[in-house]
User: What shape does this take?
Amino acid sequence: MNDQLPPFSGDSPTCPKCGNVGATTRYRAASPRMLWDWNDATGMRGQLPERLERECDRCDWHWDEALVDQPAHDGPSVAECTANDRAHWNDKYAGEQR
Ligand SMILES: [Zn+2]
Assistant: This one.
């Protein structure tokens, strides 16, 4: 599903609405089809793949981009972080409802 999203545009993307250079980036897990508040409207979106959500620093416009194929750093991959996080929390809260 990631091939349906535009590629990650780097740390200084150009907003498609206002032309500002600069946006925040948030990792978003895969999500089922549901009602979303998205760019000043409420509507059905999804189902959505794992993605990077970008938010313009100037006008707050949001758009989605694909995960990078190769990590941009030497640290662990998203999959490794997810596995480590899951192992950590499973050990700490074994038996509790998740
Ligand atoms: Zn903008």
